[in-house]
Task: structure prediction
Amino acid sequence: MFDHLDPVLLARIQFAFTVSFHFIFPSFSIGLASYLAVLEGLWLWTGKQLYFDLFKYWLKIFAVVFGMGVVSGIVMSYQFGTNWSVFSDKAGAVIGPLMAYEVLTAFFLEAGFLGVMLFGLNRVGKNLHFAATVMVAVGTFISAFWILSANSWMQTPTGHEIAANGQFVPGPSWWAIVFNPSFPYRLTHTVIAAYLTTSLVVGGVGAWHLLRGHKDPRTRKMFSMAMWMAAIVAPIQIFVGDQHGLNTLEHQPVKVMAMEGHYDSHPDGAPLILFGIPNSAEKRVDYKIEIPKLSSLILKHDLNAPLAGLDTVADDRKPPIGIVFWSFRIMVGLGMLMLLLGLWSLLARWRGRLHDWRLLHRFAVAMGPAGFVAVIAGWVTTEVGRQPWTVYGLLRTVDSASPLAASAVATSLIAFVIVYFIVFGLGVLYLLRLMAKPPASGEADLGHDPSHAAGLTPAPAVASKSFR
Result:
C-alpha cells in the first residue's frame, strides 16, 4: 500500500515528527530547572514562604515535563540504527562520542540529583537540597551543550578526517569538532530560547489566574518575574539571532538565500521580503511585500552590498524554499511579538498596572505557547535549510538512509503518530490541569516518597529456627 512512496522522505518525516515532539519538553525543562533554582535560592535568601510555594507548584510541573522529555527522546536514538544506518556508519565515530559525553555527564548528573530534588527536601538539609536543584539545572544545560555540539557539527563540520572507507573520523583535536564554527551561536540562541519559552509559559499561567481573579501574592509574583524575564531576554535573543544569522551566511549561504527568498542575485543591494508566496517552479516570490536594500543592510551592514541568490546554486543543492521561507518568518514574527509583550509589561509596570491591565493579561495568555511554536519553527528553518545534506556539503541525506522498504517506514511512522498523540496528549492534558490550579499558601508536596527500593510491600518475616 505504501510502496509507491519515497522511503527516504518517510524516514525524514518520521524523524522530524519525533524530534519536534521531543524538543517541546527540553525547551521547557531547561528554563524551568533554572527557574526552580532561582525560586529556591530566593526562598533560602529571604525566608519568604511565597517563593517556596511557587517552587513546589512548578516542581510538580517540572517532574512531568522532565519525564516526558526523557521518554520521547529515547525513540530518536533508535532511528539512527533503523532508518539512518548509513549515516550512523559513516559519521558514528564523530557523533557517537558526542552523544556518549551527553549521557556520561548531563544524564548521570540529572539522574543522580533528580531524586533528591523531587523527594529529598524532608530528608536532607535545605542547602544540600538547593545544591541538588542547581545540579539538575546545570545538567540540563550540559545536555543541551553536547546535543547542540553534535547537531552543529552536522551543520558546519570541522576537525574531522575522512578515512579511506569514507567514514568521518576525529582529527588531531576533539576541540575543533566540539567547538565547530556554528556551535557557540546555536548553543546561545537555543538556551536563551528555552529561557524565553519558560518565561512565556509562566507568564501565561500567571496571567490566566489574574484574569480569573486569583490576585494573591504568589500569582502576582509569578507573573511579575515572568514579565521581567521576557522584557530582558527578548531583545537579547533578537541580537543573538542576528549574530547567528550572520554566522549562517558565512558558512551556509544557501540556507540564508532560502530564508530570504532570494531567487535572484542582487549586485546593488538586496531587498528584505516581508511576505510573499515562494514559487520555485518560476523561481520567484509572488505577491511579495519588500523593503528595498534592507536585507543587504542587515546581512552586510551596507545598503548597496551585493548578495548572491539561488540562481547561483545548482537545483540539486537547494533546500525546499517554501518551507524554509515561512518557518523563518514564523520564528521572527513571534520573536517580535515577544518583544512587544516585554515592552508592554514595562509600560504597565511603570504605570502601576502590571497586575490589573486585563488586555495585557489576555495577550500574555495568548503568548503562552508562542515559545514552543517559535522553537519548532526555528529548528525547521535550521534542519530543512541544511538539505539536501545530512553532513553539510559532505554527505547527502539520500545517501544516509537505511535500505528499507517504504511500507516498513510508513508503518512505524503511523505507529509513532498514534502512540505519541495518545500518550503525550494525555500528559499535556495533565500538565494543563496542574497549571489550571493557582499556587496556594502551603503548597502540597510532590507526592509520596519512594519507600522501598524493591517495592512498596516488605517481604514477610521468616520465623527464626535452627537448621541442622
